[in-house]
Amino acid sequence: MLLIIPLFANPYEGFNNDKDNGEENDVVKYDIISALYLVMLGYNANYYYRWGIMDNICIVLLYILTLIISIFAAYLSYNCNWKVIDNNIFVKLLFALIAFMLGPLYLIWFFFVNYLGNLC
């Protein structure tokens, strides 16, 4: 799960540390969700993009979607009763935390190993 960063403030605006021998660098760095959003729209994420209110709303919705996916992955991991490992609460919480951090990757693994393999 990615941390939610304020979307209306650009953290790279006030810093001019990316200068090479007096020349300014035109490359702008966005967080991963914003960069994926720009790529989905067909823009190059390495250059400045003028954000509109609808763009910000779409970014917030993408953050909410990633949060929901991560919570669902943690829920599935916590409710899984493995036949191999005893139902220890600490092991279940550890795997739920790992599933929360990995999100979609855990859901793919859960489908192939747990659902098709009948391990839960």
How are the elements arranged and paired?
Elements: E1 19-20, E2 23-24, H1 32-41, H2 53-79, H3 89-102, H4 104-115
Antiparallel strand pairs: 1-2
Whole-number tally of structural domains: 2
Rg from alpha-carbon coordinates = 20 Å
Q: Indicate the overall shape.
A: elongated
**Protein structure class:** mainly alpha
The helix tally amounts to 4
Stretches where pLDDT falls below 50 for ≥5 residues? 1-7
User: In percent terms, what proportion of residues is strand?
Assistant: under 5%
Order of helices and strands: EEHHHH
Count the E strands. 2
- Distance between the first and last residues' Cα: 24 Å
Strand numbers in spatial order across the main sheet: 1-2
Describe this structure in words.
This protein has 120 residues and is mainly alpha-helical. The chain has four helices and two strands; from the N terminus they run ββαααα. The chain has two domains: 44 residues, no CATH class; 52 residues, no CATH class. The protein has a two-stranded antiparallel ribbon. It is elongated, with a radius of gyration of 20 Å. The N terminus is likely disordered.
Give the key terms.
120 residues, mainly alpha, two-stranded antiparallel ribbon, 2 strands, elongated, disordered N terminus
Offer a concise description of the structure.
The protein is mostly helical. The chain folds into two domains: 44 residues, no CATH class; 52 residues, no CATH class. The protein contains four helices and two strands, in the order ββαααα.
